[in-house]
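Supplementary Methods. Inverse-folding protocol.

Structures were first reduced to a discrete structure-token string of length 329. This string, shown here, constituted the complete conditioning input.
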């Protein structure tokens, strides 16, 4: 059956097709054999250009996707002009900069840290959790102690603005007596997906999360299946935006599962965004976006509101691409 039609009949529940995911994945790899694998990397938002360049240094010499996605987002983690990733990110409501990150490889191995303070490269700590422990996720003090024990570099924010902005926020919040908001001005997590010359996929995601979040709050970014998911038989996806909404639909996993059942990366991202929209009565300020890549290296992206973009790099291209969207702000 034609792939797209199968998706419509089956995955969306419009027909009575009985699924056989294995058959679908065989179909996909059959298609993929017909064309050569081209290494490619994509990542969320404008800072993705610099991050992709670092990832590309790994991919262009035949390196592994897992190394590329770690090296790539490490650039953003130390970019102090980025106020949503790494130690230069905005703090929580109590003035602490707490970081979330995760990583996943082509063997479905994954590692994650959440609510981690004072460490320069959370993504590398997440990778160490994946490679050196029996666990997937470490949080808070435990994650910090693990990172110190592994010799990871400690670092506090050198930015005076972090404290100044926070003090201003505290004052304004008291005046307005309202909760913090996530919107298109105060968030730009980096999520990255790469396919290497062997055709293997990996992904990474790192953020300081929702600006002025409640102390203890963890978003989607370090949650495997929400902020990031990789299934090397099928594809990979990562998310940006309001983490609570993304977690609610297990966003990145949902995108990958749609691809498993035959959706293109673009169709899969659109389906997940539409599901978020359906599940929320009030979409005010609720921006969420996904990027996805399948085993053929095809890419898609979609968001609730306009304004979301992603960076793409391969042998021929180095560019920003505007994602499709459901509605305008
Ligand atoms: C979070 N998803 O902590 C993150 C924020 C984000 O672009 O993606 N900002 O909810």
């Amino acid at each position: 059956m034609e792939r797209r039609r199968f998706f419509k009949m089956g995955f969306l529940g419009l027909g009575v097709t009985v699924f056989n995911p294995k058959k679908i994945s065989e179909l996909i790899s059959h298609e993929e054999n017909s064309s050569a694998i081209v290494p490619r990397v994509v990542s969320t938002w404008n800072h993705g250009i610099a991050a992709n360049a670092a990832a590309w240094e790994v991919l262009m010499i035949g390196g592994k996707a897992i190394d590329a996605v770690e090296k790539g987002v490490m650039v953003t983690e130390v970019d102090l002009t980025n106020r949503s990733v790494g130690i230069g990110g905005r703090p929580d409501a109590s003035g602490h900069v707490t970081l979330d990150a995760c990583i996943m490889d082509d063997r479905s191995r994954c590692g994650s840290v959440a609510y981690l303070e004072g460490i320069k490269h959370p993504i590398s700590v997440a990778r160490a959790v994946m490679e050196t422990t029996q666990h997937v996720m470490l949080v808070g003090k435990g994650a910090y102690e693990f990172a110190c024990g592994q010799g990871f570099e400690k670092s506090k924010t050198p930015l005076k603005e972090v404290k100044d902005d926070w003090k201003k926020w505290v004052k304004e919040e008291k005046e307005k007596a309202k909760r913090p908001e996530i919107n298109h001005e105060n968030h730009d997590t980096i999520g990255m997906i790469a396919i290497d010359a062997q055709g293997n996929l990996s992904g990474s995601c790192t953020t300081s999360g929702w600006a002025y979040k409640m102390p203890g709050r963890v978003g989607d970014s370090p949650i495997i299946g929400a902020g990031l998911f990789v299934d090397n038989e099928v594809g990979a996806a990562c998310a940006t935006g309001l983490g609570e909404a993304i977690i609610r639909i297990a966003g990145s996993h949902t995108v990958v599962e749609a691809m498993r059942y035959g959706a293109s990366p673009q169709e899969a991202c659109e389906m997940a965004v539409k599901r978020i929209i359906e599940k929320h009565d009030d979409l005010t300020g609720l921006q969420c976006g996904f990027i996805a890549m399948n085993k053929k290296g095809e890419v898609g992206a979609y968001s609730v509101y306009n304004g979301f973009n992603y960076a793409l790099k391969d042998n021929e291209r180095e560019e920003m691409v505007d994602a499709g969207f459901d509605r305008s702000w």
